[in-house]
Amino acid sequence: xxxxxxxxxxLFFACSLFLQGTLGEVVCEDLPTDVCAFSIASSGKRCLxxxxxxxxxxxxxxxxxxxVVVERMAEYIETDGCISACGVDRNSVGISSDAxxxxxxxxxxxxxxxxxxxxxxxxxxxxxxxxxxxxLPDLCQRQRTNPRRAMIELLSSGAAAAGPASVGSSQxxxxxxxxxxx
Length: 182
Ligand SMILES: *[C@@H]1O[C@H](CO)[C@@H](O)[C@H](O)[C@H]1NC(C)=O
Prior knowledge:
Layout: H1 2-23, E1 45-53, E2 59-69, H2 80-85, H3 103-110, H4 112-115, H5 119-131, H6 136-145, H7 150-159
The chain binds 2-acetamido-2-deoxy-beta-D-glucopyranose.
Organism: Escallonia rubra
Protein name: PAR1 protein
Signal peptide: 1-24
């Protein structure tokens, strides 16, 4: 099991080196759809996996350049190690903060294996959380003490900025703002 993962990792690195070597630079539109999500083009922009249905009703996928610029990181294809440590899915379509609303997903992103080793994915969720008015380190802190309600609490305390922070209040999930899509 462990050794097969190692082989996969080695293969993946070999493939990504090969890709970068042959293309010269990473262009989202040229990436295979299975390494599109969480990749960063040479331009520093995030790649975005999109789906669409063809005329005969089939769902197809394409990799596109988003307008999201990643500071201090360019030309990067995420490792399988980080994909699994952070519990994210290379086949996920679009970029959304939905994962932060799910305790299991937040736990993965906040886990030391992800949080301390996978700056690309952490940067992405840091910004998605910020888009909801939430500071990711705070979310991770709360996640450790009260995993079930961490995001909801932060969202409701943010929304109720005028009043006192509603820690422990039982606000309905539906009161949370809609997740941001970029
Ligand atoms: C694209 O993917 C989303 C999320 O997985 C799904 O809800 C949607 O129906 C898909 N759209 C098409 C055209 O297949």
